[in-house]
């Protein structure tokens, strides 16, 4: 009886154990299947989102590409507060675009300038007309100031970087001296200081500067900071020159870094002025001499603009659409400028030397056009009375909204 009972008990126990084991295995398989299903669903969802993002022009920044972006929380946050990750992303873009001596070419633009048939297309076209300048595109970094400009850059160029401030819309046309214009200009100055601190030299160029020849042979070898002019006095060291911040070449060293910090901080001393006018005010400050900054001003014979055009098409390197108010006027004259350049290049070599061909611009762009053009009405723009007095006269009269003295061009 005891033997039978033990045998029966053993048999029952084995059966129960076998059943439990089978149940456990079944449960494990079910759990694995569920996990696999969840992972497959998540992976598929991520893939769909990624492809959707690509279809509208956004890319996930990769450490092995020259396409990166980051977003600043407010316009008041100094770029000195960049995180290590953000600096790493910027470093990747600069590294992929740099020349052998750690020099990059940098431009900035927003949606208005990046739109099809706008300034960006003409800017890139100017590089591509000649082999000498086409190769410089390999070293051009385009800084997009809004998401649509960044998307447009990705469609056209290899080295793109998004510098977007959350809560600040800089996508529309920024009218000269209006608040959005000032934000764009000063953010660019602070950003360029960061580039210098990373050890990179740069040529900064506005996107409305057309590149016709390689400018590097015409830069001063001993200069820390050299800048184009609205008006060139004939002396590269002369502080009587009128600098234009739309084109400059800067070497990375302690002097240039300290200078950019001083330039940026001086916006608080000269409230309401843009970077170019502040530079004109500080260019002869004792601080510049104390840090022994070697500043030079570039000859308009090589680096011209609509303010003071280069006269000799056989020498000109760049032409800037300065002294111009309004995007449409700028685009009109830039298209004519490129037509003139192509016409000059089509001449036989002997005729290029003796040619009396000159620019047909400025036309819509001119100092006089500033008196014809009225920006759209603005609300509570504390700068407008000052701007109106400067362009339209009568400094004693408080102007409450823009007005036109003549018919628009």
UniProtKB/TrEMBL annotation:
Keyword Transmembrane appears in the UniProt entry: yes
Nucleotide-diphospho-sugar transferase domain segment(s): 136-334
Keywords: Membrane, Transmembrane, Transmembrane helix
Family annotation (InterPro entries): At1g28695/At4g15970-like, Nucl-diP-sugar_transferase
Source species, domain of life: Eukaryota
One Pfam family it belongs to: Nucleotid_trans
Bilayer-spanning residue ranges: 31-50
Alphabetized PANTHER family for the sequence: EXPRESSED PROTEIN-RELATED, GLYCOSYLTRANSFERASE-RELATED
UniProt protein name: Nucleotide-diphospho-sugar transferase domain-containing protein
């Amino acid at each position: 009886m005891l033997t039978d009972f033990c045998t029966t008990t053993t048999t029952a126990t084995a059966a129960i154990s076998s059943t439990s084991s089978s149940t456990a295995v079944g449960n494990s398989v079910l759990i694995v299947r569920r996990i696999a299903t969840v992972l497959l669903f998540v992976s598929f969802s991520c893939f769909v989102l990624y492809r959707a993002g690509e279809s509208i022009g956004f890319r996930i920044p990769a450490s092995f590409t020259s396409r990166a972006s980051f977003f600043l929380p407010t316009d008041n946050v100094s770029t000195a507060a960049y995180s290590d990750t953000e600096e790493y992303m910027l470093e990747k873009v600069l590294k992929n675009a740099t020349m052998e001596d750690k020099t990059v070419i940098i431009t900035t633009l927003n949606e208005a300038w990046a739109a099809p048939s706008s300034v960006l297309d003409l800017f890139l076209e100017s590089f591509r007309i000649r082999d000498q300048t086409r190769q410089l595109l390999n070293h051009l970094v385009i800084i997009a100031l809004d998401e649509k400009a960044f998307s447009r850059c990705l469609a056209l160029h290899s080295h793109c970087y998004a510098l977007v401030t959350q809560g600040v819309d800089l996508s529309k046309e920024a009218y000269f001296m209006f608040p959005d214009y000032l934000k764009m200009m000063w953010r660019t100055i602070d950003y360029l200081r960061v580039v210098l601190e990373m050890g990179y030299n740069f040529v900064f160029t506005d996107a409305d500067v057309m590149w016709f020849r390689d400018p590097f042979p015409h830069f001063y070898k001993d200069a820390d900071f050299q800048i184009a002019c609205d008006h060139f006095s004939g002396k590269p060291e002369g502080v009587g020159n009128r600098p234009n911040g739309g084109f400059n070449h800067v070497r990375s060293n302690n002097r240039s870094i300290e200078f950019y910090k001083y330039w940026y901080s001086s916006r608080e001393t000269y409230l309401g002025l843009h970077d170019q006018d502040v530079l004109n005010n500080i260019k002869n400050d004792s601080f510049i001499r104390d840090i022994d900054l070697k500043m030079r001003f570039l000859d308009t014979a090589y680096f011209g603009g609509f303010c003071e055009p280069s006269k000799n098409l056989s020498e000109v390197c760049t032409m800037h659409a300065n002294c111009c108010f309004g995007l449409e006027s700028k685009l009109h004259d830039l298209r004519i400028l490129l037509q003139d350049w192509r016409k000059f290049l089509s001449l036989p070599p002997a005729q290029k030397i003796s040619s009396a061909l000159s620019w047909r611009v400025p036309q819509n762009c001119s100092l006089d056009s500033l008196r014809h053009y009225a920006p759209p009405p603005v609300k509570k723009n504390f700068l407008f009375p000052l701007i109106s007095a400067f362009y339209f006269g009568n400094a004693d009269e408080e102007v409450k909204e823009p007005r036109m003295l003549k018919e628009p061009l």
